Predict the 3D structure of the following.
Amino acid sequence: MTTTIPEITVTPELAKMQEIVPTLIDRANAFEVDTDQQYEKGSQVLAYLKTQSTSLDKLRRHFKQPILESGRRIDAFFKELTAPAKDAIFIVQDKMSVWYRVKESERRKAEELAMIAERDRMKAQMERERIQKDMEAQGVEVDEEDLPFVPEAVIVPEVIQASSTNVRKTWSFTVMDEKKVPRIYLKLDEQAIKASIRDGVRDIPGLEIFEEVSFVKKAHRA
């Protein structure tokens, strides 16, 4: 089945590729390497497949390049246009974050004080009930003024809310001393490792360095 894309005009070269490429997997699976002659033939087959792959990649870049250039121009235009809006968002968000932290700090302190006040209130309530029971047991008429005062429950301020935004909390971090960071959180620098291997390093503690075999198409010299 042939897939069509509006931005791509099917040239004769591309049409030929669309016919050839779907058959390559079956042909590769059917190919066997069990003799020196087949090994040599495999070299030719690989060269052929790499040629087809390279040709397809050139076609891809040919069709994609104008789109990429257009995309870069669009990105640059809107990046310049939206930069002030993004900076303004950061400024306002930073100010709101500072105020939110102030109010949240006040609320948490009030919550701690409310917990202490609630414990005292419950003690006062229990003492009031004990005195009332004792007076009733003694046949004494209980008047409100004879009982100890029980304070009202303290109301903790609610979390500050805004009409157009919600608060989303996420944890983050700042590196204070990289030497103290556990090794599990440190990522290997693969580029540095590969560069060292290319420079001849063959022994790196904790790594096994081995040679991989792959095949590249020979360049034809005139």
Remarks:
- The chain is about 55% helix and 0% strand.
- The chain has one domain: 12-198.
- Residues 12-198 form one domain.
